Amino acid sequence: MRFDIATLFPDMIENYLSQSVIGRARAKGLFTAETHNIRDYTLDKHRRVDDTPYSERQGMLMQCEPIYRCWQAICDMSRSQPHVIYMSPQGKTLTQKRSIELSGMEHIMILCGHYEGVDQRILDKIVDEEISVGDYVLTGGELPALTLIDSIVRLLDGVLAEPDCFEDESHYNGLLEYPQYTRPEIWQGIRVPEILLSGHRANILKWRHEQALLNTARKRPELLKSYPLTDEDLSIITKDFDGFDS
């Protein structure tokens, strides 16, 4: 899988992509990622890539031409036309489901905005979708871009040791993850649940599912509205939550 990231701050991207699990996966060639400094594609002798908006609003807006030239260069280099994502608070909120879908793509270009954003004409011309990492505004699109890349890369074959590493996690199957424990068995008088010490895999899996249901009902009950609850699931939840509305 290939990522091309168009940004004004390539070092921010490179620093993260060379670290930890993602860095090791990149070094092994499990995915490729190239950063592109948008300033390298401007025709302005001062390397400017922005100008004032056509309005009374203060701030600066990124121009079309440098971004378009960057996109053209990426298409020429890769000999393919990437799926282009613009990181924007106006986009659809990133979900685990969308990350799974995107992990099946061969080539993604991510556009990182800055200042007051990007001229609408370039969005209309090259962008396939806008994605948001939450209902808040950041200084630029670099952190959201890294969030998106991380959420996709960890799903690729060989990046994590086993599929269980992400299939058991929050949101993968529509529920939040169950509570987890490690040594020591007793900490400040609090014991690890006995069932986790039993070695009985079937009972442990049943406990995990029950705890995932309860954890979701307590913290993110709205997620259960789209989860295919069985009668047994409802019984588990209503036993702990009076008046639960499924």
List keywords for this structure.
246 residues; alpha/beta; Alpha/beta knot; Trp Operon Repressor, Chain A; 2 domains; two-stranded antiparallel ribbon; 9 helices; 17% strand; elongated
Give the number of DSSP strands: 9
Sheet of most strands: 5 strands, parallel
Order of helices and strands: EHHEEEHEHEHEHHEEHH
Low-confidence stretches: none
The coarse overall form would be elongated
CATH topology of the largest domain: Alpha/beta knot
Beta percentage is: 15-25%
Helix percentage range: 25-40%
CATH class of the largest domain: Alpha Beta
* Largest sheet strand order: 2-1-6-5-7
Q: Count the helices. How many?
A: 9
Radius of gyration: 23 Å
Structural class: alpha/beta
CATH superfamily of the largest domain: SPOUT methyltransferase, trefoil knot domain
**Number of separate domains:** 2
Kindly, what is the distance between the CA atoms of the first and last residues, rounded to a whole number of angstroms?
A: 40 Å
Whole-number average pLDDT? 93
